[in-house]
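Usage example:
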Amino acid sequence: MKQDRKVEIELSSLSFLVPFILEVDRQFSVVWASNSFLRYHKYIPGKNIKEVLKIYIEKKELPFHKLPELINTTCNVVFKVNDKKILLRGRWLKIESGFLLLAFPEVTMTDKLADFLMSEEEAKISLQDAARITEIFKKRNQELQLTRKELEQEISRRKEIQESLVESEERYRDLFENATDLIQIVDAEGKFIYVNKRWSEVLGYTREEAKEICIFDIIHPKHRKHCRQVFQRVLQGERMDNVETIFVSKNGKQIFVEGNVNARFKDGKFYTTRAIFHDITERKKMEDELIKARQQALLASKSKSEFLASMSHEIRTPMNAIVGMAELLAETPLNDEQRYYVQIFKNAGENLLNIINDILDISKIEAGQIELEKIEFDLNDLLDRTCEIMAIRAHKKNLELACHITPDVPTHLIGDPVRLRQILVNLVGNAIKFTEQGEVVVEVKKEMTEGNTVIIKFAVRDTGIGIPNDTKDKIFESFTQADSSHTRKYGGTGLGLAISKQLVELMEGRIWVESEVNKGSTFYFTAQFQIAPKVKEPEVLSEVNLKGMKALVVDDNATNRLILKDILSNWGVSVSEAESGEKAIASLLRASKKSENYDFVILDCRMPGMGGFDVAREIKKYPELKTTTIMMLTSDRRKGDIQRCQEMNIASYLVKPIKKNDLKRAIELALGKVVVFKTMQPSTSASAPRIKKSSNLLVVEDTEDNRFLIKAYLKGMPINLDFAENGAIAVEKFKQKSYDLVLMDVQMPVMDGYTATKEIRKFEKENGTGHTPIIALSAYALKEEMEKSIKAGCDAHLTKPIKKKVLLNEIAKFIGGDKNGR
Amino acid sequence: MADEEKIVVHIDADLKELIPGYIEKRYTDIETIRSALQNGEYVIIERLGHGMKGSGGGYGFEKITEIGKTIELAAKDRNAEQIISMLEELKNYLDRLQIVYE
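Running the assembly step on the lines above writes:
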């Protein structure tokens, strides 16, 4: 019965009991086999399953390498043992080390059922098998779980990446889209793949339109060739920075752009080019304007410097006549009065010249026109000469002027002696001007030497009024003095220190002042010079006798020739004239033929046609004229002239107006026989002027103090004084009485001096009373003020405060008595 | 002290009679300017400065001309501070004056 029941069991349920389990590695070698296999084939572990198994899917045999594809699919497996085949049905599972077959026998009616049933012992073994399987699965499960965890992590990581990618892409798209630069992405043919909003706005093509055109369509024709080259280079992987080109918009507008282009590669193959351009049209415009402005500025500067040069020439030429004529006039027999006038005329000329020089200098400096000469000079000599001249001024004020140079200072230098002298004259002049008693001392010391460069420190010390601390820095600025209270008192343009400062800076030095109010000031400056290679032996000084010498004066200006001729003739020189370079050469050659060579030629530098340098060059061509000394005379000291003179062996270089003493010295120097300096005597001050007796004088002055003052000054003079407190009263008084002279203050209440003068002139004209001299008095020394008073009808102009001597002299000019003091 | 040192000025003997009056008037000017300053009457100050400028040097007081000039300009600029400092300078100068007639 028991046996029967056994028979009745469903075969399929029985099969459950005998599982065929096989573990193989990746090479399909059997690692382990369940007991069911071992029962048939004891040696199956170690064998390759290809030898014992065949796999079928729907009756089709499958090669083993396709096994991975069968994972988890139900398939048929035939197990061959000797000649016996056992049909199994099951699944291949993937495990870590390989594969696991889990199969059950397909029991057919022909099989001996007993073969598949397990004995009790076999069941035990089977349990062990199951434990092993469980273990395998457990392990696999763990692995799977781990893998799953990893996978999950991986997934979430990717998700994050993707999110950030999306975000970043959006960000970049946004950046690209809203950038103020033009951004374009172009393919290998130059077709636009992407253009940003700005691009579209600037170039006027919509994005759809952009896709229809190519990069070269928007490039200015003249740049296309170049851009193709650039594009080629980009295709080869070069990044192009700072590409500048011109785009042309849809409506033909030119857009200047600058930017960079680079290619993008994908898998080593060219993908696209991306270009970012910046619209620089505005900048270009500005650049163009700047260039234009610069050209204009250069032009302006050039014309300014030309203007300055010609102004300088134009002003100096008449000044030359004025100063020269005054000197000549002073030589003629004159009475005291005339001598006095000439002196004033001469002084005024010199003052004017100084002012003009200052103004021209500062203009030149401001126009950057001043460059220093580099010529050899002797510092000792320069200091001597400067102090010698300045001493005259100092002595007039009973001041001592001393100069001290320490022995270690190199004195044979290369630099600009004229400019150095100008600085010294200025500082010493100021020192004298602002010092009432005591001394002015010039000290020269060596600051340092390096190679053949020397820095020399000059100090000009005075015992004058000093400078308050708060104005110490300002005094070196242009026009500063013109606004300070000093100008009226001390005169001057106030440009001297500004010029000196600029010159010192050109000499790579600096200028500063130390001062104590009422104790004195010391102006310091340093300047850099080259030390001249060879020290010339100082020439033996002896006075030259010019008597009997022959000279040729070459100048196109007749006045100049006259002045030179007169001066030279006075020294006993026999003078010939030539009005042009050509005539000069002819004259020189003629004289040479007669063996009557000229001793020296004075050449005007700037003449129409053949200039001074041309003439000099020509003279040098003739060996027979070798003995003739050439001297150059110019109205404008131009850069390089002195150097040219040295190069051409021209003996001297003089700047107009010609001063007699300078000329004499220059001739003596030029003739190589240097001079003993003669100290010039200051002109003796004119004795108290004589005044016509019983003159009637009307003094128009609103300030009581000044009325008193004038009264006091004129006390003891044979003058009847009337006073008027303003212009209106003056005009009334003038109408009632005949006056010999009127002193007219210009600034007064009620009616000012100008108006009063005009009224008086009108009255004279209407009544035919003749011209009464009027001397204007004003607190302004400005040229405009003087002009204004002269224009109003005044005969002269005096600046307040009025000095006794000045007033008396001025009065004497108009109502002076004759020589006999009648 | 330096401030107490006398300032010696040489003046033309012809002006001897005028000088005390002139100096006295400058002291008056100082007071006038002070009160004008309080009332903001710069026109008065400017005129007085102008007067000093025009007369000082004539008498031999260069310093007064100088101060007058500064006062005139300062009045134009409405620069009270500078005017006050000039007044002090003027007073100091006047106080220390020692005149030598020659």
